[in-house]
Amino acid sequence: MANRMGISTKEVSALTQHFCQEVGALLENEDSINIQGFGTFEVKKKLERVVINPATKQRMLVPPKLVISFKASSTIKEQLKAIK
């Protein structure tokens, strides 16, 4: 990436780190992020649920939580199909 952009690897590293921090801050606020031509990141809420340990048959309650979801754009999906 540094060669293509004509900048140093340290600058690319700093830009990447800053980008990840900004994405993280937006997701902490439960905002969705749409990167045109790439996809959408969003925070989804998973409800609490009961799971069973297959070894002990013990039932456990898993508390609700927030998870990050990614949906690829149709452009990326088409490019990946072309690679196969």
Question: What proportion of the residues form beta strands (DSSP E)?
Answer: 25-35%
User: What ranges have pLDDT less than 50 throughout 5 or more consecutive residues?
Assistant: none
Share of helical residues: 40-55%
Largest sheet: 3 strands, antiparallel
The best one-word shape is elongated
The count of helical stretches stands at 3
Q: In angstroms, what is the radius of gyration?
A: 19 Å
Q: Provide the residue-averaged pLDDT.
A: 93
Q: Which series of helices and strands comes N to C?
A: HHEEEEEH
What separation lies between the terminal Cα atoms? 24 Å
Using DSSP, what is the number of strands?
5
- Strand line-up across the major sheet: 1-2-5
Structural class: alpha+beta
Explain the overall architecture:
This protein has a three-stranded antiparallel β-sheet with strand order 1-2-5. The two termini are 24 Å apart. Strand 3 and strand 4 (59-62) form a beta hairpin. The longest helix has 20 residues, at 9-28. It has three helices and five strands. 40% of the residues lie in helices and 32% in strands. It has helices at 2-5, 9-28, 74-83, and strands at 33-35, 39-46, 49-52, 59-62, 65-72. By secondary structure, the chain is of the alpha+beta class.
